[in-house]
Amino acid sequence: MKRIMAMFNNLKIRSKFLVSYTAIILISVFMISTINYQISADQLTEVTSNHSEYSMEQMMLNLTSGKRDVEELLSLQYSGSNIYRMINGDTFLLKMSSNEKDTFIRNFLFYLVYSKQYLMSAAVVDKREHVYYVNKVDSKLTEEQAVERAAADEAKLRNSAETYMWSPGSGENIIIERAVYDINTSEYLGVFIVEINKSYLSDLYVSMNKLVGGNILILNESNEMLLYSNRDAPDTIPYDWMTHYLTQNGYLNGQPTGKLAYEGKPYLFIAKTSATGKWKAVNLISLAQITKQSDRLKFWTVTACIISFFIALMIAYLISNNISHNIRLLLEQIKNISEGHFHKRIQPKSRDEIGLLAEKFNLMSLKIQNLIDSVYKEKLLKQEAELRALQSEYNALQSQMNPHFLYNTLETINSMAKINKQEDISNMVCLLGNLLRESVRWKGQTIALREELSYIQDYLAIHGYTYMDKIEIAYDLDEALSEVQVPKFILQPIVENAIIHGIEQKSGKGLIRVSSRRMDGELLLTVSDNGVGMEPGEIDAIFAQEAQETQTAEKHTGLGIRNVDKRIKLLFGKAYGVTMQSKMNEGTIVKITIPLNQEEVQYGL
């Protein structure tokens, strides 16, 4: 508490005023809403309970009357049919054969089932488990189930004080059973079973259910469920759990009303017993459903309190708004600067200390903006100058080939002309002419990949004549990438480096492999050789900035690789360029990555 009071004392005056006023209003709103809601909820619960008790009494009268009507109908049909004599086999007295007896019993069952719409099936099972069975299409009781029920309920029926026993059937229909005795000898002959549609009883209480609401559960004398209205509705308690709870706590035998909780939700229940004391009805209503009727009162009470609270809060806000206005403007300007909006300015409403601070902040943001603009322009000019320098360097490399390469090529052509006098000389001259012609003709910074690969193929073909069988060339090219634009002369320095510093210094035959493929939205060009390889430090030296000035003429290919890497990065960004992998006495792999969708790549930065 002391800590809270210390925090409150350190608040500004405006904050203290708002916090105090808010606390008073919130406490008042909470107390008024809670008291009103509790009173209304208790009254609604009491009214609902009284109304439910009265409705349940009327419903039990209806159910008792309906039960009696069914039993009287069955008794009347049974007593006038001489069924017991048929089952007992008194065929001599009746002058009937066995087949005629069976036909008589089945006709009796047929006329009985079709005499009322709610009767679904009927069966007679004698003590020898011989069954006579008639059913309608919608019946849920099968002939086999009738035999099983007769055997299972025989003892209960013979010992029951009631003539008819009602129990739940399959498919939620209801089964009525009675024992069949010989009137003269009181000998037990079998079981008479009738299946009725549950709608017969549910129609008797459906109107009551609408008035009372909730769920209504009808139980027989053994607390077995005969009917359960709205059992699939939300917030319905499972039958097994509810009957166990009510029986365990004595609610089905004594106390007529009470409350219970299931899964943390409260319910009100009203239990009623029939006049005969055999059947029971339980009305289960969710308290949330009862108190839902008081939600309107709660809504308008809370609404009125909230409106009053906001009116009072608005008055407090207007009083203190002038004090904190310049502070909010200052915080807004800080947010603008953090987001990079240095051009925005604030206009303070007053010339107090906070207003002066806001003016100084405007001046500071202006100076920061000017500084950023100058740094950006300087960086842009530096990049443009670097790009021009690299382009000049590239043009210089383009305009002159390695003298060592030209010398060897011309010497080879000369030797072949003198010795062989065959068309190989013509081929070499043509290839060399193509190289020189293409290096002069190409314009612009990028060309199609097929043109770059064509240039390299001519270049390697000349080397094939130069080194004879010492060099083997392999190509693995994706034709679908042939029109992708790439910077000019990005493969020639890498291939030349593989020949001079890899294959030429290797004893035996060398292999150079050139491949192109698509990988994750990028073009991947690979030049690999099985030459002498390089140490990791040599690769680092090729890409090192300081190595550029000390590069000798014999190692100009390192400068060429670095030039290719920097040109790609300046054109497409730092995510692209040249990477190298090498192992001594195993060879070198050089990879070039270029974006396929070059329009989305930001140029320059």
TrEMBL record:
CDD domains: HAMP (cd06225). It is a multi-pass membrane protein. Its main location: membrane. SUPFAM superfamilies: ATPase domain of HSP90 chaperone/DNA topoisomerase II/histidine kinase (SSF55874), HAMP domain-like (SSF158472). It catalyses: ATP + protein L-histidine = ADP + protein N-phospho-L-histidine. It is found in: Cell membrane. It is an enzyme of class 2 (transferase). GO terms for cellular component: plasma membrane. It comes from the Bacteria. GO terms for molecular function: ATP binding; phosphorelay sensor kinase activity. Keywords: ATP-binding, Cell membrane, Kinase, Membrane, Nucleotide-binding, Phosphoprotein, Transferase, Transmembrane, Transmembrane helix, Two-component regulatory system. It holds the Pfam family His_kinase. The chain crosses the membrane at residues 299-319. Residues 401-598 form the Histidine kinase domain. Residues 321-373 form the HAMP domain. Its EC number is 2.7.13.3. This is histidine kinase.
